[in-house]
Amino acid sequence: MMSRDLRSMPHGIEIYADIAIVGGGPAGIAIARELADTRIRVLVIESGGSDYEAEIQTLNSVESIGQPSVSPNAVPEGRGYSGRLAWLNDVPAFELRNRMLGGSSHTWIGKCAAFDDVDFRSRPWLPLSGWPIERSQLLPALDRAAKLLNLGPNRYDESLFALLHSTPDDLGLDRRLLRPFFWQFSHMRSQRAVPTRFGRLALDITATNIDFLTHATVTRINIDSHGRSVTSLDLKSAAGRGASVHANTIVLCGGGIENARLLLASNSVLPAGIGNGYDVVGRYLCDHPRTSLCRFTGRDIDPIAQHFNFYGLSHDGRTQFYLRGLSLSPEIQAQEGLTNCAAYPVQIYAQDDPWMALWRLTKGASKTFKGDLLAVAKSADMVTSGLYNRLVRKRGLPHRSTELRFDVMAEQQLNAESRITLTERRDKFGQPLPRINWKIGTCEIGSVKRLALVISDEFARVGLAKPKLPDWIAGGESDAPVFMDMAHPSCTTRMGTDPRTSVVDINAMVHGTEGLFIAGSSVFPTPGHANPTLMLLALSIRLADHLKQRHAATQSHRPHVSEPDLSLQQG
Questions:
Q1: To which CATH superfamily is domain 1-68+82-151+186-286+413-439+487-571 assigned?
Q2: Average pLDDT for residues 454-477, to the nearest whole number?
Q3: pTM of this prediction?
Q4: Could you give the CA distance from residue 455 to residue 180 in angstroms, rounded to a whole number?
Q5: CB count in 10 Å sphere of residue 414
Q6: Among 409, 412, 448, 559, which residue has the fewest nearby CB atoms (within 10 Å)?
């Protein structure tokens, strides 16, 4: 990887590239990888460096005036993280973003799933639903994204059953109400316990046509005097160095907040901002409202964990594991006007859980060595059965737990008033801070409640334990439900064919602005309930294919250059 640091470069330097990618997170790095070893000169611009820097992270500050709000008697939910990642629960809403090479992949757990067929459909009860591209058009890019993430086959519904080493039991749940849903967990190829870190993938890029520029925050997108095409970018570093990047093609990969913020703040030619002729930029802000749906304790835990756990299959010489959960069926969504949502199991392990004790012992992380050793010794049967489960049946390990709960992430109905605007407050570079007015509607709240009640009733009907439901679902309290964002902001520069309700076209180019493209979850037409990384990578790979074709078309009459000059030039 060829990397340069703006802090050490001359002030006022001018940099030239064919394609400038703004943001070195998963979307930006995926596009750069796809463009590697081509004749296209690519510059990836990252606001931070290769490591965490508190000073740069302050640029993520927002002014939040909407959800999540908590009533005086309610306990904040957090984002559901535990153990070493528990600190992520305390990061303020919409500030859990990483300004460093690798972006959000530094604080994710690798959880992946593709969007359902229903997510792509126009659903009359959900205004503006329906994608302008078919799911089938994304399947090749989805498979390439899965390979990048070291995942198994892209199967997340009951079609997965036929591939699993041992098929889940048929519990007799009513498929007209509930459907099985699965998630995979991405990992580094060399370290299965470590989620894919895109900073490391960036280091693997050795192509001479790819350059990285770090500690370079883009402060403005420049367009021509008619506002019809992109021309350059203005950059600043924390050390006070400024620079300009000239490129015929610019791709914004800054995430659901920053992509919209940068368009709105680039208002020197178009007062409302770029791509905002219809006041759409920043609207339709969605995330995945998360809460704990239902809980099991005591003797009820093991029978539930037996069915809702990890299931494995063999793929490319490795075993890939999928986590089993439940989602609302498309039928009940249509009949009752609900959004798509799914619940996944989370176990809280006991201190004497032998598998966690064994992990602490092998990692040298044990604080009570004798206690952990005793926990393993006293649970020989559990360890033996667990090894059989894992190695022979390709199932998840049995754990000793104090609680098993189902958490939920829900699709949001699009709301034009759920949005990002700009404040009068400025960051250290003089840029206006984003004002976040996230709105959680009655439709998604009702969908979450319905899922909880259906799970409770269906479990009881088929002979499983009935869970304890939160008071706001069970009906004992009048307090509003407590949700938290999952750091999955989306739809703020959504894809569509109508500029009155979308920001980019089906090729992810900003309506009316030649050469300006956007990648990432901000272009999702609707947010689905699934974690966004796999889908945004598929769209990014699709965009990279389009950029290759576009560049080839514009360069077809130019003389051949065997080795493009990628040197950074001072103006």
A1: FAD/NAD(P)-binding domain (3.50.50.60)
A2: 92
A3: 0.94
A4: 12
A5: 21
A6: 559
